Amino acid sequence: MSKRCPDCGFSNEDHRIYCASCGEPLDAHLRLIQNLEAQTKKAPAKEAAPAPEPKPKPAPRPKYDDEDYDLGKMAREKKSSPLPWILLAVGILAVVAGMLILNYVV
Predict the structure, then answer these.
(1) Among candidates 84, 63, 83, 58, which has minimal Cα distance to 74?
(2) What is the DSSP string of 26-67?
(3) What is the four-CA torsion angle of 76, 82, 84, 87, rounded to 10 degrees?
(4) Alpha-carbon torsion 41, 42, 44, 46, what sign?
(5) Which 8-state DSSP code applies to residue 19?
(6) What SS3 class is residue 1?
(7) What is the per-residue pLDDT across 62-95, written as a single tens digit (0 to 9) for each?
């Protein structure tokens, strides 16, 4: 049995993939693939995607009439050092030690 070319009608041998006369593919699936490739090459380039919308800016922090409750000011304030508390404790211990020594001596 022979394969007949769908384009030119030439009768080809069974083992052939392409027509011996015109060179067109004899297999319907191969023809479909070539047609799709040709359409892809001819298709116009896709339009560029629209630019993404800019992200909305965050809402400004609320300002209060009373400056003591301004959240930004509170966040910027430095934390106090533990040094005054340490000095106070040392002073109290010195006074207590002095009183004990005076009571012992007297």
Answers:
(1) 63
(2) -SHHHHHHHHHHHHHHHSPPPPPPPPPPPPPPPPPPPP-SSG
(3) -170
(4) negative
(5) -
(6) coil
(7) 665 555 555 566 666 667 788 999 999 999 999 9
